[in-house]
Structure formats: structure tokens, C-alpha cells
Design a protein that fits this description.
The chain is built from 25 helices and 17 strands. The chain is extended and about 105 Å long. By secondary structure, the protein is of the alpha+beta class. About 50% of the residues lie in helices and about 15% in strands. A hairpin with a 2-residue loop joins strand 3 (about 125) and strand 4. Strands 14-5-16-15 form a four-stranded antiparallel sheet. A four-stranded antiparallel sheet has the order 11-6-13-12. The chain has a four-stranded antiparallel sheet with strand order 8-7-10-9, with helices on both faces.
Length: about 625
């Protein structure tokens, strides 16, 4: 895989990458290299086969991506939904591959071989390297014949799917309509009905709770956890062992003195003739040459600098740039200055700014710092060097002990460390040292769970390392009714409270939609609408469902509101969204933006056409899918 990630920088990778950018060809890279060797199949799509190895690899990849988004909380992922989604994606992929082959989308073997030979990842000293190519094949677990066959399929799919998407277009009238909708604004009003006001009205029985639990068992799972034991080593034990004397500081002090003496400061003077839109390179060079000639004939450098230099900052001082350390100026200027002796003038030198005539006025050595002035700095640096050395030696020693030991006791004894415990440690991680992602991934690794090995040292901060051991692994499982009863009761109470709140919200919305005055509705239902103000489609409310509802309402009549009930993402209320006005935009879109919008809309149309075509292929292709639900009963 790492080899492929490197390869993707070149042509071959771009062909493959283009396929993955097709929104409906969401197949993992590994799937392409399964080679069809597995006899296990999860789907037949016409004469195409989706192999279990390909399916498992793609599920694993997408699961890993999802886990990153939910902070490694496995209970947040519905495994069976993920597996169904992946299977459907692979079926779509197979449909497109089959149709691309049927319609003759292809590239010749000779072209593929030529492009492989030109691939930078396979070149050494500008020439194709058979060794690099064979190394790649070995790392990716395939032969050249399999690779070429895969590229045939992938290239054909790129051409076919890309061609379908590129057929999308939009007419000006449709673009005008969509742009008008996009730019309109609405005057929004919002009322929230807190669920707390309805909870007291709800009563649920044990039978209702049991029925709810049995219908929603997938919601009631324990979190995966381990009992974590760990030790932490920091730099504290080593500080008392470090003694720094003046003798220890003499070598670094002398190095500092030598460096300061080598860093002479130079006083330079220059005349700059710019190269810009107004002055061509040749004209600037000619002017600089003329001034250089005048200086060589004896004219005063400072006078000419004041009169002709286009560096406004230094021209007033006769071109004097003052004293500056080496490395202050651009490379060409520095290189020229290095070659000059005091009072010597250079010929015109080209830099990114234009042409310079440079004169070195003087050189002075910077004063070496006294020992006392830098003693604190040198002491801190020497202390850190010794501390890092002692600390790293200790980390190496503890890593060796971790390999040899079955318990953290030996590690704790070596440096008088305290064994700390974190029972019921989950994939969400913990606080402090236990919040590092590496701690979570290591605690739930196979080595930790199956073999209960002590981990190697994990860096959790500067000079702070942690060793852990996972015990008593508890996989995620379904909770029993007794375990889930309180949670199920709370969910059922909320569900019933939502029903009551929605009944009131629906009556409020219905009254407004009939034309009842807003003030009268608020008085009758004892509800208060907040005036949110005028919002555009791109303004963005905290809850997207409120935004969608507001911009889905029709135009209200004068002095009336149109309204809708919304059960948003907030778990504590039901809302009534209302609008009192729709404001149409009369602003003309700039031509450049209009062109970009038309391209974007055409692209979306093309994507939808690709989706529609996939549905057409499904309806006309014999597809047989296996049950891919997880064997884990807790999933």
C-alpha cells in the first residue's frame, strides 16, 4: 500500500485516482489488487464477480475512516449498515466495469507499458528501472500481467464513467431559476416547545419498556473496554542527578565565541535600478552599466545613489545600508558582497529586484559575549543535553524490560514508578496522558488484547513516556433488558414527549397556515416566537433541519405567516419554523461567477445522470448478492 501511495504521484496513480474521485465508484485501493484469487464470493453482477477478499478489505478501510471521525468509538458505527453500503458500492462498480468492457472502452497493452516506463516512480537517473518496477510488484503482491489487466479495467472505467458525467449540461433558464432560488432571503421566526414541559404528562409501563427494548436492541450495547494498567516516566527523577560546572560550559562557550567572531558585520552601499513593468531588463542593465562607468571615472558613489537609486529607503542616505550580518540580503547580493574588499565597487549585479551596483564600505567584528552573560543560557542547554541522554537511556532500558516482562511491576521497580489503573477504559480514550490517540490504538491492538503484552514506550509529551498493559477485555455486546431498562425508559419517555410536543406544534403551524394572525396564535397557544431576522440560504442555522424547513415553505400572504413543525437534532425541544416574507434578489451575477455556476450545475447534472444510468443497469442485469451481515451478534 505504501508503494501505491508513492506511485499515485505519477501518471499511473492519476489514472487510478481519477476513478476513486468518481462519487459512485467508492472502492478501496486494495480491492483492485485482489487479483480474483479468492473462491469466496459476495455477489454476482452479470458475468462480474465481487470477491469476499475485496469486500472485506473495503469494509476495513471504510471502517477505519469512520472510526477516525468518531474518535475510535466502535459503538457509534452500525456494522451491518456499513457492510450493506460497501456491498452496494462494489455492485455499482462491477456494473460500470462490465458496461465499459461491453462498449469497448480500452487502452492497448503497448500504451500501458509505455506509460509505465515513463512513470517517475519507476525511473532511476531518468531511465526506467526494472528493479524498481519489480520491487513495487513484490510489495503490492502481484505480477505485471495482473497489474496491466487491472489498469485495463480501471482506465476503461475512468473513460466510461467520466464520459457519462461529462454529458451533463444546463440551459440558461434553468440556471436563472436556480440562481434566483439560491439568492433569495426569508424573514424567519422560531418557536421552541421544550420537551421538559411534556415529560410529566407521559407515563410508561414495564411492558412498554420491554416492547421498546425488543424493537430497538441494536441501540442498547455496552461499549468495548479494557481494564488499563500503566506507568509513566518523566524527567523528574533525573534532574537531581545532573551537575553542571563552569568547566562543562567552556567548550560550548568557546564554540559560541568562535561563531560570533566569524559572523562579521558589513556596511554596504548600493544603487538599485528596478526591472518592472515600466523598465525593461535591457534598459535597466544599460542604465546600471552607465552609472558603473561614471563611478569608475571618479564620480561620487553617494551622489549618484541619491540621484539615481530607486531604493527609496537607502537613496536618501547615499545608498548606505548600514551594518548588517551575513545572510541579510538575497543570495546574489550576498555572493557579490563576499568578494569585495573595503571601498571596492562591484559591476552591476542582477537580483529579483533589478540591477545593483554594490560598494563595501567597512567590516567590523561583532563583540564576543562574556562568559557571565551567556552562562545561564549555556547551563540550560547543557542541562537539557544531559537530561535528554539520561532520559533516553531510561526509556531504552524500560523498553527492554517491557519485552522481557509479563507484568508492569518490573518496570515500576526499575525507576520507582507508580502503577496506575484506569478500569473500563474505552475507545473514546481518557483524560490527560490517556487522551493520546496512540494510547487508545495500542490499548486495543491485537498484541494488547490477545497476548496482553506490555506496550513499548508511548510518547505522551516532552520527556514523558507511557507503558501500558490491557487486561479483562470486554467486547461490545447487546445489553440485557435489566441493564438497558433505565436507558430504554428514558428513550421511550422522550419519544412519547416528542409526540405530544409535535401535536401542539402541528396545531400552531396549522393555525398560522390558515391565516390566523401571529399575535393571536401566540396568545392562544401560549407560545413565544423569536424573530430570527432575514436569512439567506447560505447563512446557516445551528440546526440544518431548521434551515431546510424555512426554505421549503411557500410564499406567505401579506401580513400572514407560513409555518412547519420541525423535530430537529436537538434532543430537548420540538420547533415551529415560520416565515413572514420571501425577499427576491434583483442582483445580477457577474459573468465569471455565472460561468462557474453553470459548470458546477452541469457537473451535478452529470453525476445524477451517472446515478440514473447505474439504476438502469441494475434493472437490466442479473444481480445475486450474498448476506454480508456481521457474524457478531452484537453488531
Amino acid at each position: 500500500m505504501e508503494a501505491f501511495r508513492t506511485l499515485i504521484k505519477g501518471w499511473l496513480g492519476k489514472v487510478l485516482l481519477a476513478i476513486f474521485l468518481v462519487p459512485f465508484a467508492l472502492v478501496g485501493i486494495e480491492g483492485y489488487f485482489s487479483g480474483g484469487n479468492s473462491v469466496n464470493e459476495v455477489a454476482h453482477v452479470g458475468d462480474q464477480i465481487v470477491y469476499k477478499s475485496q469486500f472485506d478489505q473495503t469494509v476495513s478501510r471504510q471502517r477505519d475512516e469512520l472510526l477516525k471521525q468518531v474518535n475510535n468509538q466502535t459503538d457509534k458505527i452500525d456494522e451491518n449498515s456499513l457492510r450493506d453500503l460497501v456491498l452496494n458500492q462494489l455492485v455499482n462498480q462491477a456494473l460500470l466495469q462490465h458496461q465499459a468492457k461491453t462498449l469497448g472502452f480500452s487502452i492497448g497493452d503497448a500504451q500501458i507499458i509505455e506509460l509505465i516506463h515513463k512513470e517517475p516512480s519507476f525511473q532511476e537517473n531518468g531511465k526506467f528501472s526494472e528493479k524498481l518496477f519489480q520491487d513495487y510488484l513484490q510489495r503490492s503482491g502481484q505480477d505485471s500481467k495482473t497489474l496491466i489487466a487491472d489498469i485495463h479495467r480501471q482506465y476503461a472505467l475512468q473513460l466510461f464513467a467520466g464520459g457519462l458525467q461529462n454529458t451533463g449540461f444546463t440551459v440558461p433558464s434553468e440556471l436563472n431559476r436556480i440562481m434566483a432560488i439560491q439568492k433569495e432571503q426569508r424573514h424567519l421566526h422560531l418557536a421552541n416547545l421544550p420537551l421538559a414541559n411534556y415529560m410529566a404528562k407521559v407515563q410508561v409501563t414495564d411492558d412498554q419498556i420491554a416492547k421498546y427494548y425488543n424493537s430497538n436492541k441494536a441501540k442498547f450495547k455496552t461499549s468495548e473496554s479494557v481494564d488499563l494498567e500503566y506507568v509513566v516516566l518523566d524527567a523528574t527523577p533525573f534532574l537531581s542527578k545532573i551537575q553542571i560546572t563552569d568547566a562543562d560550559l567552556q567548550a560550548p562557550y568557546q564554540a559560541l565565541v568562535k561563531a560570533s567572531q566569524a559572523n562579521n558585520e558589513r556596511q554596504a552601499q548600493h544603487i538599485l535600478i528596478n526591472v518592472d513593468d515600466k523598465t525593461k531588463d535591457a534598459d535597466a542593465k544599460k542604465k546600471a552599466d552607465e552609472l558603473y562607468a561614471r563611478i569608475q571615472k571618479g564620480e561620487d558613489f553617494a551622489v549618484l545613489a541619491k540621484q539615481f537609486s530607486q531604493d527609496a529607503g537607502s537613496a536618501v542616505a547615499g545608498g548606505d545600508l548600514g551594518f548588517a550580518a551575513k545572510g541579510t540580503y538575497v543570495a546574489e547580493f550576498e555572493a557579490t558582497l563576499d568578494k569585495l574588499k573595503p571601498n571596492e565597487v562591484s559591476q552591476p549585479v542582477k537580483t529579483q529586484y533589478g540591477y545593483h551596483i554594490i560598494k563595501l564600505l567597512a567590516v567590523r567584528q561583532t563583540a564576543a559575549p562574556t562568559f557571565d552573560s551567556v552562562k545561564a543560557q549555556l547551563t540550560a542547554e547543557a542541562t537539557k543535553t544531559k537530561l535528554d541522554s539520561l532520559y533516553n537511556d531510561a526509556v531504552n532500558q524500560l523498553n527492554e524490560l517491557a519485552v522481557e516482562s509479563s507484568s508492569l511491576v518490573e518496570l515500576a521497580k526499575a525507576y520507582q514508578l507508580m502503577i496506575q489503573k484506569s478500569p473500563v477504559f474505552g475507545r473514546a480514550g481518557g483524560a490527560g496522558d490517556l487522551s493520546a490517540p496512540e494510547v487508545v490504538s495500542t490499548a486495543f491492538s491485537d498484541e494488547a488484547l490477545i497476548d496482553q503484552r506490555i506496550s513499548s514506550g508511548l510518547s505522551v509529551g516532552e520527556n514523558r513516556t507511557l507503558w501500558l498493559q490491557s487486561k479483562n477485555h470486554k467486547p461490545m455486546r447487546e445489553q440485557s433488558l435489566a441493564e438497558a431498562k433505565l436507558q430504554a425508559k428514558a428513550a421511550l419517555l422522550q419519544q412519547e414527549a416528542v409526540k405530544l410536543a409535535k401535536q401542539d406544534a402541528d396545531r400552531i403551524a396549522a393555525a398560522l397556515n390558515k391565516g390566523t394572525a401571529p399575535d393571536a396564535v401566540q396568545a392562544e397557544f401560549k407560545v413565544m416566537f423569536m424573530d430570527v431576522g432575514v436569512l439567506g440560504r447560505m447563512t446557516g442555522l445551528p440546526d440544518p433541519s431548521l434551515q431546510i424547513a424555512a426554505f421549503g415553505l411557500p410564499q406567505p400572504a401579506a401580513n400572514q405567516w407560513r409555518a412547519k413543525t420541525v423535530e430537529g437534532k436537538s434532543a430537548d425541544s420540538v420547533s415551529v419554523v415560520a416565515i413572514s416574507e420571501i425577499i427576491k434578489s434583483t442582483e445580477e451575477m457577474p459573468a465569471e461567477q455565472r460561468e462557474q455556476a453553470q459548470k458546477s450545475l452541469a457537473g451535478l447534472t452529470g453525476q445524477q445522470e451517472l446515478l440514473d444510468y447505474i439504476e438502469y443497469l441494475k434493472a437490466n442485469t442479473k444481480i445475486k448478492k450474498q448476506d454480508v451481515k456481521s457474524a457478531d451478534p452484537a453488531s
